[in-house]
Amino acid sequence: MVEPLSLFVPREFAGERIDVVLPRLAKGLTRSRARRCLEEGLVEVNGRPVKPSLRVKGGEELLVRAWEPEPISLVAQDLPLAVLYEDRDLLVLDKAAGMVVHPARGSPHSTLVNALLYRLAGEGVAGGRLGLVHRLDRGTSGCLVVAKNEAALASLQASFKARWRRPTSRCATACSSPRDASTPPMAVTPATGRATPRACRVNAGL
């Protein structure tokens, strides 16, 4: 659900139809969805509902009430994933900063969900949904837990609700094998996308 929008019609749009102007002013609103919003009475011009054929004069105030965005078609894509752990119930990923988690208008492809659809083809919880237990913003890096079945999803959701996890933004790792700073504690095999872990001890709460 998209929150209500308050907009102002610039003078240069004078003479144009409201169903053409509206999607140009409201980010993420397509012309077809704008027309439906108008037909459903969700758009007011100077406090009054209007028809899609209305021609604006410029200077009007628009109010677009809360509306549902058009569904985005999800496409499976073979994209690299940094896998930290995987078993028959769950998958733990290291999401890099800059990677979008969920497809949205403006970022419909090359997201973590697109990659998971490819990797977990034939798996996933009932209905083909992806069992993402939590989410991270595009600019945030960190671990993401993905449930691979309904039982795992329910258990993880209950754990998160009970605040079982203890998020921290600082930690240090001490690996059992010598390595320089450029060597990651986990190597992902490109051909399979699976991780080869090294024995590490994590010291949290620093």
How does this structure look, described?
- The protein is elongated and about 60 Å long.
- The chain has helices at residues 18-25, 31-39, 112-119, 150-161; strands at residues 5-8, 43-45, 48-49, 61-64, 83-86, 90-95, 131-132, 142-147, 171-175, 186-188, 195-197, 200-204.
- It has a four-stranded antiparallel sheet, with no helix packed on it. The chain has a four-stranded antiparallel sheet with strand order 5-6-8-7. Strands 9-12 form a two-stranded antiparallel sheet.
- It has two domains: 5-64, Structural Genomics Hypothetical 15.5 Kd Protein In mrcA-pckA Intergenic Region, Chain A (Roll), CATH 3.10.290.10; 83-168, Pseudouridine synthase (2-Layer Sandwich).
- The protein has four helices and twelve strands.
- The protein is an alpha+beta fold and 206 residues long.
- The longest helix is centred in the last third of the chain and has 12 residues, at 150-161.
